[in-house]
Specification:
Blueprint (H helix, E strand, L loop, with lengths): L5 H20 L10 H4 L11 E3 L1 H14 L2 H4 L3 E3 L16 E7 L4 E7 L3 E7 L3 E5 L2 E4 L5 E4 L5 E5 L5 E7 L1 H6 L5 E3 L13 H6 L20 E2 L1 H11 L10 E4 L14 E7 L8 E3 L3 E7 L2 E5 L2 E5 L4 E4 L5 E5 L3 E7 L1 H6 L5 E3 L1
Antiparallel strand pairs: 1-19, 2-3, 3-10, 4-9, 4-11, 5-8, 5-10, 6-7, 6-9, 8-12, 13-14, 14-21, 15-22, 16-19, 16-21, 17-18, 17-20
Bound molecules: 1-hydroxynaphthalene-2-carboxylic acid.
């Protein structure tokens, strides 16, 4: 009797298994042992790629869109910043969306609401407003504005300059949970029911209305965090010692609870003094950064960029990030950190 080699035994066993997999696939079953390692990785390895978008190019491209379609025709005239590792998914990380929106003088973006939560960071131009549930706010550079889940919102440009902002939404998160609802408003622009500044005065000045008690998961009534205030805080704390990993970094909160302004998206503002180099850091919340001021070298995983004013980049989950500021640099960032934290999935490593 000739001996059978191990290779032959393995080949035969492989064929038998494959035939079995093919049979059970017809009944919608598949073997765990073939995918277990990929399902339960030792550490995150996001398909999202570290990516930089230069503002000069973004602006040229969105201005061209301005010649091709009106804001009203488009409903929202936005170029999606799509992660090259997530093609066709309208996603910048697995859980978040980013887009650059343009509104030209005289245009309106009609009122609607949806269960997706949104934030804006104003980048360019003056004279536009966003209205959230009946109150307008004038959009100024660096302002962080939110439209929480299911709040009516519309935009308009009453000035004479194009206005550009970054939109951040939890679109992939809401899609993952199959929880998307949307509807149009009754009119193109909402009727104003409160004067500008009302919400900030009532809820954003270390006080709340006497009979106001907020549920823990409710979004904040403060829907604009003016850059003037953010900058004032950063300027002040920058007189002190920077944290080795963060420089001077603050997170935006719902002032009534201390929680994130919205449950699915967290936002941060950060100052890196000229010449300061951060130690490498990573965390499980994939993060989108905007360079509001300054100039810095940034290393994300194996990528390195010379960051200029208004450039946008993404740090996927568990990729290390490290900065070297060439000048005093101010960064805005947003991520899914509050969602991960409330699910017990947030981790960080200070390297
Ligand atoms: C949206 O409502 C806005 O209100 C911007 O400006 C981008 C992307 C997808 C879905 C809704 C806005 C959006 C969006």
């Amino acid at each position: 009797m000739g001996s059978v080699s191990t290779t032959e035994v393995n080949a035969k066993q492989g064929n038998l298994r494959q035939a079995y997999y093919d049979r059970i696939a017809k009944d919608h079953m598949t073997p765990l042992w073939e995918v277990l390692g990929a399902l339960v990785p030792k550490q995150p390895s996001s398909p999202a790629l570290p990516t930089l978008w230069r503002y000069a190019n973004l602006r040229d491209q969105v201005m061209e869109a301005g010649r091709l379609i009106t804001a009203e025709q488009a409903e929202r005239r936005v170029l999606i910043l799509e992660n090259p590792g997530l093609p066709g998914q309208s996603a910048i990380t697995q859980s978040l969306y980013a887009g650059l929106q343009l509104i030209l003088p005289g245009e309106v973006a009609p009122a609607h609401r949806h269960t997706q939560s949104a934030l804006r960071v104003v980048m360019d131009g003056e004279g536009a407003y966003t209205a959230v549930d009946g109150e307008r706010t004038t959009m100024r550079r660096g302002d962080f504005i939110i439209t929480p889940s299911w709040t009516f919102h519309d935009h308009g440009n009453l000035g004479d300059q194009p206005v550009v902002w970054l939109d951040g939404l939890d679109i992939p998160t809401v899609r993952f949970y199959d929880a998307g609802f949307a509807e149009h408003g009754q009119s193109t622009s909402q009727d104003t029911v409160r004067p500008e500044g009302d919400a900030l005065a009532r809820y954003g000045n270390n006080m709340v209305p006497v009979d106001f008690y907020q549920g823990p998961a409710e979004p904040t009534r403060v829907f604009v965090y003016p850059y003037a205030r953010t900058k004032e805080s950063l300027d002040q704390i920058a007189a002190g010692q920077p944290d080795p990993h963060f420089g001077h970094k603050l997170r935006f909160v719902n002032p009534a609870t201390g929680a994130s302004p919205m449950p699915t998206i967290g936002a941060f503002a950060q100052r890196l003094p000229a010449g300061f180099e951060t130690r490498p850091y990573r965390c499980t919340d994939g993060t989108v950064y905007v360079c509001l001021e300054g100039e810095a070298a940034v290393a994300v995983g194996d990528q390195e960029w010379q960051l200029q004013r208004d450039d946008i980049f993404v740090v996927p989950s568990w990729q290390s990030v490290k900065f070297l500021a060439k000048r005093d640099t101010t960064l805005f960032s947003y991520s899914d950190r509050p969602a991960l934290q409330s699910l017990g999935l947030w981790r960080e490593a200070r390297l």
